[in-house]
DNA sequence: CTCGTGACGGTTGAA
DNA sequence: TGTTCAACCGTCACG
């Protein structure tokens, strides 16, 4: 179940077992690595296990994405998009066809072999759930011509493919297959798979959130969301303005922060640079502290540090951020449709958002952004 | 000391 | 509706 509090690792960092680190932390890891800081130092500074640092960096190097993979769900084993397509075709050609006939045809046509051919019941379910009553659907579709039928047409494979076309473009500042970025506005709202959705949404949220932060929030992209929303320190309400459900995950971390000794020590420790650090890093120490506090101390609803996360956003190299975003692949996408239902998870709703962000070592720049001194 | 790796206990969500 | 199960997570310990 949902831990009321996170756990503390050997380094004093807070984490939620089974859940990904916040993107802010993931991003910090990558940024620090790109500055030439050794993984072991990153691990200590951010208080993330070196195994995790290693994993995140490895993934980043491989895919260009800092984002965690898609958690949960299940890959269709037999009812692949191709199979569904064929089933639909068979059904369209012969509306009266029986499931067992479809099964036979799938075998006969070589769409499936005996090992992966769907069971009759599976086919029936596909007909019922994915294809539906074709005869009815025909007029139904007449009404919503431009709205593709939910799942079926959608390539699960595409969704699950790892690395995705996008990710495959590793480390490209302008990843191929990224029309999604400029085109996000036009993104079909009914994107079939939640797995894919967040991606897009995530991208969108970053790009567009400044203008409209209220849409398309996925719990799994909260960090980006938050980052964005926290740009304005004094506008902590933005967080509330955002789909609060999208903060769920962060909320966990936030909760962790509350009254958890490890938290304060974590924050302070970060800012005191427990380890000798290269001069270039020192700014990041503070920065890390802030970012980390954000990670730990959270946002939005949490009583004390209002906008801890913000700092890093100002400093995220656009290319890097984009890189991470763009290569988001399918991961984390599935949560989108949870926005409405995420309320099922009880998090403190009381959000006395004190405007005392400074508690968390956030440096307020004249510009108004609170970025940490990075230069 | 650093870092890659696998076991582990955990969460998630489509089927 | 509830369960199953395979995906992912980060930590930890080992080498």
Automatic annotation (TrEMBL):
A GO cellular component annotation in the UniProt record: nucleus
One of the Pfam families matching this protein, by short name: PAX
Keyword terms of this UniProt record: Developmental protein, DNA-binding, Nucleus, Paired box, Transcription, Transcription regulation
Annotated protein name in UniProt: Paired box protein Pax-9
Region (Disordered): 326-353
Highest taxon in the source lineage: Eukaryota
Biased composition (Low complexity): 341-350
Gene3D superfamilies to which the protein is assigned, alphabetical: Winged helix-like DNA-binding domain superfamily/Winged helix DNA-binding domain
Localisation per UniProt entry: Nucleus
Entry coiled-coil feature ranges: none
InterPro entries membership: Homeodomain-like_sf, PAIRED_DNA-bd_dom, Paired_dom, PAX_fam, WH-like_DNA-bd_sf
Paired domain span: 4-130
Gene Ontology MF: a single term: RNA polymerase II cis-regulatory region sequence-specific DNA binding
Organism: Microcaecilia unicolor
Gene (UniProt): PAX9
SUPFAM superfamilies per UniProt: Homeodomain-like (SSF46689)
Keyword DNA-binding assigned: yes
């Amino acid at each position: 179940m949902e831990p009321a509090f996170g756990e503390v690792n050997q380094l004093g960092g807070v984490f939620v077992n089974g859940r990904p680190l916040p993107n802010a932390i993931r991003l910090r890891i990558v940024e620090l690595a790109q500055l030439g800081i050794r993984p072991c130092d990153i691990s200590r500074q951010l208080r993330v296990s070196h195994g995790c640092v290693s994993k995140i960096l490895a993934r980043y190097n491989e895919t260009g994405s800092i984002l965690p993979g898609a958690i949960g769900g299940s890959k269709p084993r037999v009812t692949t998009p191709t199979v569904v397509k064929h089933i639909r075709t068979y059904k369209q050609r012969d509306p009266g066809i029986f499931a067992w006939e479809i099964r036979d045809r799938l075998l006969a046509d070589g769409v499936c072999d005996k090992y992966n051919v769907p069971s009759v019941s599976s086919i029936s379910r596909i007909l019922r759930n994915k294809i539906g009553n074709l005869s009815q659907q025909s007029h139904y579709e007449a009404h919503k011509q431009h709205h593709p039928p939910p799942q079926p047409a959608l390539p699960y494979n595409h969704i699950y493919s790892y690395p995705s076309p996008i990710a495959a473009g590793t480390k490209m500042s302008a990843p191929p297959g990224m029309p999604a970025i400029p085109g996000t506005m036009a993104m079909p709202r009914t994107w079939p798979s939640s797995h894919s959705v967040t991606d897009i949404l995530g991208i969108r949220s970053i790009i567009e959130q400044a203008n409209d932060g209220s849409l398309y929030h996925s719990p799994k992209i909260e960090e980006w969301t938050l980052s964005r929303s926290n740009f304005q320190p004094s506008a902590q309400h933005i967080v509330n303005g955002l789909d609060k459900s999208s903060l769920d995950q962060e909320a966990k971390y936030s909760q962790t922060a509350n009254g958890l000794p490890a938290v304060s020590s974590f924050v302070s420790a970060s800012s005191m640079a427990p380890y000798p650090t290269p001069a270039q890093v020192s700014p990041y120490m503070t920065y890390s502290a802030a970012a980390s506090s954000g990670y730990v101390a959270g946002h939005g609803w949490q009583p004390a540090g209002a906008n801890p996360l913000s700092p890093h956003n100002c400093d995220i190299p656009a290319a890097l951020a984009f890189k991470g975003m763009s290569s988001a692949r399918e991961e984390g996408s599935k949560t989108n449709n949870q926005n409405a239902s995420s309320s099922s998870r009880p998090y403190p709703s009381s959000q006395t958002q004190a405007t005392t962000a400074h508690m968390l070592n956030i440096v307020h720049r004249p510009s108004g952004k609170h970025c940490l001194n990075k230069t």
